[in-house]
């Protein structure tokens, strides 16, 4: 099975192509954040290196959020369009889970997080079980202090990944159990790992309806919800004319 | 999404509108608009191909709007188009949205050069001179609000749902120009427009009436507003046509569906021996992909292609004319 994996959830642009368990090629760029311009050219380069055509692909795996609005939008649009237009599988993984998968320690508790500003984070807690991250605390957009309190309840060493160093002081004062020191490359998405994860997961049932997992409402939506507490945001707002 | 043959035959033209979403928030919320595009993009591609009864093998190129517009919305189109072009090894044609609006007129008749376009929409009000195919030069544009924007603002004041253009147009036909609002820059020696003074005069008039408890006739208000807009647009267009004797005047953009404006230009142009009026078809005045395909055919023949680095350009503009005729 030929798999293309894509992650542009945050600053790094990361793409890989795999043939079953074999990583054929992988590219990670962290020096700029021009995902709109460079995602597709990097995919072209990647497939060319692996001597593959787009039509050789069997599956696209994408880190579908949370993360930067623009980043996950571009990754998801590219991935779903590619899957739809080639009529192949689309698999979505959590952008936080893909970071958690960087920790190869069976049984470890891993807390990947992205800085969402104003003391907020996108974060989740995972346990590595059978070599894959399984959710313990679901991914959420949350206050960092609340999240750390919840993590502390487990009274176990926790691997903090991602933007955790932005909150190093807070982590050291809140979390009593030892937190393993990690090398900085573990904070980057290892997109080959995403490909491997995506091999084991079920494809998205409805590719056309697939959207990024933003994990937070826009300001306009939040205000609308506050003004209309009894209404549900389930209406369809798009019509064909 | 549309499938277009040879730049003038519509095989399919799928338009998904988010007006309900805009109404929910009282306007466009860029983040939400972008998400709706992600929800619809692959379905619309499929629908466009199905309705046209073609497959990817039948296509010669993929064309996409890359500007101007909301960056979040443009990015979805550009990203999807690049991906389809890459997946099926098709050339990619970048299209200026405003060139697309002008080329809606191609579905009425072939464009003869030199030509002039009066482009009126929610984001733009400009006069574009086209000396030859694939050449666009702005000779005048709004200094402040676009005409469509002014329609939406006065519509809001009168309690009309967004977008307000159609209702204001209807009311205008039932009323009379009794308020005599200012015609900005009508006599100035340039081809530029301004609508903010008109908008303020309108708001002041209604505000003052509210304060003294007077109820104004909405039909007359709409008629007076529309007459001022149409006078300014028509006057500047006449002035431009006097300096640029073109074969065609093309009326295009969302506000080109306005009946008051269409009728006025028809009257103005009926006695013009040099220039005849080409109005974009009513159903192709608003944003659609058929118009993008019409211009893409021209771009294709001129060898205008983009590579996979194509990015959205939210403030894309035609060049200004280098040597304005004065
Ligand atoms: Zn438009």
UniProtKB/TrEMBL annotation, chain A:
Q: What is its EC number?
A: 2.3.1.234
Question: What is a single Pfam family found in this protein's UniProt entry?
Answer: TsaD
Q: Which UniProt keywords apply?
A: Acyltransferase, Transferase
Q: Report domain Gcp-like positions.
A: 31-224
SUPFAM superfamilies in the cross-refs: Actin-like ATPase domain
Q: Which InterPro entries match?
A: ATPase_NBD, Gcp-like_dom, T6A_TsaB
From the Swiss-Prot or TrEMBL record, what is one GO molecular function term? tRNA N(6)-L-threonylcarbamoyladenine synthase activity
Keyword Acyltransferase applies: yes
* Name recorded for this polypeptide: tRNA (Adenosine(37)-N6)-threonylcarbamoyltransferase complex dimerization subunit type 1 TsaB
Q: Which organism is it from?
A: Levilactobacillus angrenensis
The uppermost taxa in this organism's lineage are: Bacteria, Bacillati, Bacillota, Bacilli, Lactobacillales
